[in-house]
């Protein structure tokens, strides 16, 4: 729990089995760039989406090298678009219900579920705690810590909509992975980073992932890559 006398106060990042592993990669890179500690839980189903969307496995026994390769990949598929340092990441297996984030006394800051499947939304809304990811989310809610749920599905059916209302009423921030174009996005990475930036905005983490609205129309026609980062 301590790191050279320093108390670790990590953000728990849960990656569930919805499409959108580049969103998770962008959030993770930005948290690490901002100097935050991260506790990572990748669900069993998310192993399928990581494999499908990156071409590489995510394995508990090799999580550090698999995560580094995943975070180095750009949203357009470039394998070495980033140079991540995963030294501040602690990995927990999704079946490990004795893991730190399964208890409210573990000093987590809060939790970001990116992306969140509809199954995950249902499980958290109903308090199923079927795995560590869902248990950590339930703990986050009961401890009144910030929980962001970046749901990814379209269209949404009635049960999912009701579960999302339930999560909102329980104090979570429902943050659909819904990219915007007003920041001048021109690449897939720009769109991914906009969503990741809005997730981080919800918990007050500083980043320079997208250009904020400045009150003047026309910004969307300017290339986001030609403007300075958000301070
Ligand atoms: C390649 C692939 C893509 C998927 N994409 C989505 C998705 O975008 N949204 C969603 O709700 N479920 C999606 N699923 C289904 C979930 O993985 C499935 O509901 C699973 O039970 C979720 O489990 P988890 O919430 O424990 O990760 C996808 C499954 C696969 C294999």
From TrEMBL:
User: DNA-binding: is it a keyword of this entry?
Assistant: no
What GO molecular function annotations does the UniProt record carry, in alphabetical order? Answer: flavin prenyltransferase activity; lyase activity
Residues in Flavoprotein domain copies: 11-202
**Pfam families assigned:** Flavoprotein
In the UniProt record, does the keyword Disulfide bond occur? no
Residues involved in dimethylallyl phosphate binding: 182, 198
* Protein known as: Flavin prenyltransferase UbiX
| Species in which this protein is naturally found | Streptantibioticus cattleyicolor (strain ATCC 35852 / DSM 46488 / JCM 4925 / NBRC 14057 / NRRL 8057)
Gene from which the chain derives: ubiX
